[in-house]
Design a protein that fits this description.
about 210 residues, 8 helices, globular, binds fe (ii) ion, minor pseudopilin epsh fold, three-stranded antiparallel β-sheet, single chain, mainly alpha
């Protein structure tokens, strides 16, 4: 996308509302931003994440970033703010208190790469301890079937369509409930994985 297309895309956004953003390639990669919702409401994640902690995370961190990105774009464009917005959308979309299960394909690719979900889960926790600084833990499908664990420092990148599960490991995501106990936070997050969404993401990763 050249600069003119970039600006036209942004002008479309301003003229028609943020839904158009879904169809715009912002020049950050080849993938459309098809996982980005215009806005969504605060998800209920209690008791695994307290309402107070989630409200602070959502209202005091996410909403200002959302307003900045959606209101100012493209006149003021900050790639990290944009990535932060997108990554938080990805994170919350992937969490739910409603019970769900991985489909056969997701079970199969996890088993192929890790032997079992519990081994993947333990590896995610080990990865947390290797991380210094803030960012995102990501479970993603590499070459459509191989499941790998990755880390995005800060908001240097946005989630790609092969990202199946994202975990916000900025302190603002867990400190109020768990202080520095990241492991306890991960133990809570695993109860919240929205496998219906993960199943859809795995399917999309197959197609890219
Ligand atoms: Fe966050």
């Amino acid at each position: 996308m050249n600069r003119r297309e970039f600006i036209v895309c942004g002008a479309t956004l301003v003229a028609t509302g943020c839904i158009e953003l879904k169809a715009c390639n912002l020049g950050l990669g080849k993938e459309p931003n098809d996982l980005m919702p215009p806005f969504f409401s605060l998800p209920d994640l209690s008791p695994h994440i307290s309402l107070q902690a989630n409200q602070i995370h959502y209202n005091e961190h996410f909403v200002p970033v959302s307003n900045y990105v959606l209101n100012e774009y493209p006149l003021v464009y900050d790639v990290r703010q944009y990535n932060s917005y997108f990554n938080h959308c990805h994170y919350w979309q992937g969490l739910s208190i409603e019970p769900s299960i991985p489909n056969n394909f997701v079970k199969e690719i996890i088993k192929e790469s890790w032997g079992s979900f519990s081994r993947l889960y333990n590896a995610v926790k080990e990865k947390c301890f290797e991380v210094t600084g803030s960012g995102w833990l990501v479970v993603k499908a590499f070459d459509s079937r191989e499941i790998v664990i990755d880390f995005i420092g800060n908001d240097d990148e946005k989630m790609r369509s092969n990202c199946l599960i994202s975990i916000d490991i900025w302190e603002h995501a867990y400190y109020l409930d768990f202080r520095y106990d990241v492991e306890a936070y991960i133990d809570s997050i695993v109860n919240l994985i929205n496998w219906e969404v993960v199943n859809q993401r795995a399917m999309a990763a197959q197609l890219t």
